[in-house]
Design a protein that fits this description.
Helix content is 34%, strand content 16%. With 197 residues, the protein is an alpha/beta fold. The chain has 2 domains: 157 residues, 3-Layer(aba) Sandwich (Rossmann fold), CATH 3.40.50.720; 31 residues, no CATH class. Helix 3 crosses helix 5. The longest helix is centred in the C-terminal third of the chain and has 14 residues. The chain is globular.
Length: 197
């Protein structure tokens, strides 16, 4: 009586998010570096700068989500898990800092002289996503993401030297929501901050 329905599951494992957005986060490596360069005139690298980070701009994340929702079953089947990003967007932490310095002149890059390689170093292969979604591959490279962040933060007249203590970092935002009794210990909404009707 009912047509056969297939439950399609797509799990996207994103590279490290970056880029300008309406709900800006400054606790992401590139976003942090740009914010620090603008407000403090330096970027401080706590490790030795060698760890690898794959990056993906938030705009490219949105494109990937659209693909995941609309992909036909013949592309990937009923259940698929894949890394989302671009293999060309794997950078060392130092390369990320240098890219910011290329666009924001007269800043210093400070590397911890006693810093050791960060154990969270990782390069990621995104070839499966590239093969399955060739028309949805990331278009924003590191330079464009830096440019958009610099532009957006300057338009906001951003100058907060202590931005890591602000609600522009995820942990601080969650603490603020808990303090205001908007979320519980499980991070579930208690009282929606808007009328849901």
């Amino acid at each position: 009586m009912y047509p056969y329905l297939v439950f399609k599951v797509t799990i996207l494992r994103f590279a490290t998010a970056c880029g300008m957005s309406d709900r800006l986060r400054l606790d992401l490596v590139l976003n942090d570096f740009v914010a620090s360069a603008i407000s403090n005139k330096y970027i401080e690298i706590l490790s030795d700068g060698t760890p690898w980070r794959p990056l993906i701009d938030v705009n490219d994340m949105a494109v990937a989500l659209e693909w995941a929702v609309n992909r036909p079953l013949e592309i990937g089947g009923e259940f698929i898990t894949l890394n989302v990003g671009d293999s060309n967007n794997n950078y060392t932490v130092l390369e990320i800092a240098e890219s910011v310095k290329n666009q924001i002149k007269d800043i210093d890059i400070i590397i911890n002289p006693k810093g050791e390689p960060d154990k969270r170093s990782y390069r990621v292969d995104f070839s499966l996503y590239s093969d399955l979604a060739p028309h949805h591959k990331p278009k924003n490279d590191l330079e464009k993401s830096v440019f958009e962040l610099v532009k957006g933060l300057n338009e906001m007249k951003f100058s907060d030297k202590n931005f890591r203590q602000s609600d522009l970092t995820r942990l601080n935002k969650l603490r603020s929501l808990k303090r205001n009794n908007l979320i519980n210990e499980k991070l579930e909404w208690i009282n929606l901050p808007y009328d849901s009707k």
